[in-house]
Amino acid sequence: MKSIISDLTIRINEKNQPRRTAKNVMNIIYVTNADMPVQLDTDDRRHLVCDCKTIHQVTEEHKEDVDYFNELSQSYTSEFYENLMTFFLERDISQSNPILIPMTEAKKQLINVSRSPVDDVIMEHYEQFKQRIPIALVNQYKPQNQLLKTYKNAMIHKCDEQRIYINGISTRVYVLNKDQQSYYDKMMNEEDTETSNANYQKYKKTIEDDGIIEYVVQETKDE
To answer: Could you name the domain of life of the organism this protein comes from (predicted)?
Structure first.
């Protein structure tokens, strides 16, 4: 869907017609009652997600009411659509910036259920990733079902690598990119923040007790 939404041109392949390229003028709206209609990345910049209440969420009065829904569907006449078009055309959107897509609560929930294992690791140790976290320690958090090289590649796309001294030992660390921080800041809920803070306190205690050295030594051996 990314290319369909973002590309300036689109390939059209009609049946019994030669393929051709045309200008992409599509604006796409999905309407669904699925709990997870599309998977979104934490840094998604293409989707505005709105949660609209359905009839049965508002009231049970019309649930399975065939006559009601028949009447409702028949009300979608040409006049209705003309009025709807007039409403949209006359709506003042001069102050709107299409680049700044709102982070609605519905979008936040959808991104949360789309979270990758790497997102989970970062959010569980968010304070450490914002400041600096040893790469050797991050590797310890790798999900069992993910290859290390795949895991590292995902981290590199979200973090900068630096080398600092921890307890007198030269240590490679990850620091979460500033642009990624802005996305994760919006995603962190109260539970995520509590988990991150608790892990950060454990991490600080480990450094104070020189317990981080075993990870750094292991990293040095791996190099």
So the answer is: Eukaryota
Residues 6+ apart with CB under 8 A from 158: 118, 122, 176, 177, 180
Taking residues 52-78, what's their average pLDDT? 76
User: Does an H or E element contain 166, and which?
Assistant: strand 159-166
Distance CA 222, CA 136 (A): 9
- Cα 40-41-42 angle, rounded to 5 deg: 120
Q: Is 163 helix (H, G, I), strand (E, B) or coil?
A: strand
pTM for the model: 0.67
Rounded Cα distance, 113 and 45, in Å: 17
- Which amino acid, residue 121? V
Q: Tokens 């400041």 label which residue?
A: 131
Torsion of Cα atoms, 123 then 220 then 166 then 185, to 10°: -10
User: pLDDT tens digit string along 147-198?
Assistant: 999 999 999 999 999 998 877 788 899 999 998 998 899 888 899 999 999 9
CATH architecture of structural domain 116-222: Orthogonal Bundle (1.10)
With contact defined as beta carbons under 8 Å apart, do 110 and 36 qualify? yes
